[in-house]
Design the sequence.
């Protein structure tokens, strides 16, 4: 695998492992707690993260062979805005219903699904050449066609964004105490 992809995937693996290890220590009441009726629980946030990666892997198999200069510039500009919004903790409405949590998965099921989708993502990227780094990998609903590196950057920042959301859930009034 190309070094820039391997480095990003390794960082993403460490990020994912730290998050899952932290969640594994929480009792079920904390995992299921919703700060408000319309808010997501910790498990629903995790399910959303998994569903996003499942959609990315699915869309990676449907990418066009190239993107125009205009599409590339649009994606780069949009990625800057999305990265700024995610980095600033700005709430962004989910742009696709396909990634909304269903709310019925356990932590163990989500861990297994995330393992599977990460393995598929690695398999998709394993055979990429330097030339493939300029080709579109997936179409983001807001940014347009993203290259493999842009896709991985988005996924990493997406997890970081939702990790902050999990911190807000823990700090919410009524959050159950441990034990």
Sequence:
């Amino acid at each position: 695998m190309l070094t820039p992809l391997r480095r990003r995937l390794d960082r993403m693996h460490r990020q994912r492992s730290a998050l899952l290890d932290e969640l594994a220590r929480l009792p079920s009441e904390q995992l299921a707690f919703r700060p408000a009726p319309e808010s997501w629980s910790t498990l629903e946030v995790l399910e959303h993260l998994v569903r996003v990666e499942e959609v990315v892997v699915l869309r990676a198999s449907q990418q066009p062979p190239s993107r125009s200069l205009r599409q590339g510039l649009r994606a780069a500009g949009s990625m800057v805005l999305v990265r700024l919004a995610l980095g600033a903790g700005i709430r962004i409405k989910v742009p696709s219903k396909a990634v909304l949590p269903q709310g019925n998965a356990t932590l163990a099921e989500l861990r297994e699904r995330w393992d599977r989708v990460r393995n598929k993502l690695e398999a998709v990227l394993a055979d990429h050449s330097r030339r493939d780094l300029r080709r579109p990998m997936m179409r983001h609903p807001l940014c347009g066609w993203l290259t493999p590196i842009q896709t991985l950057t988005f996924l990493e920042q997406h997890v970081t964004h939702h990790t902050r959301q999990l911190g807000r859930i823990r700090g919410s009034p009524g959050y159950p105490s441990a034990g």
In short: Residues 1 and 123 are 9 Å apart (CA to CA). Residues 3-24+42-90+106-168 form one domain.
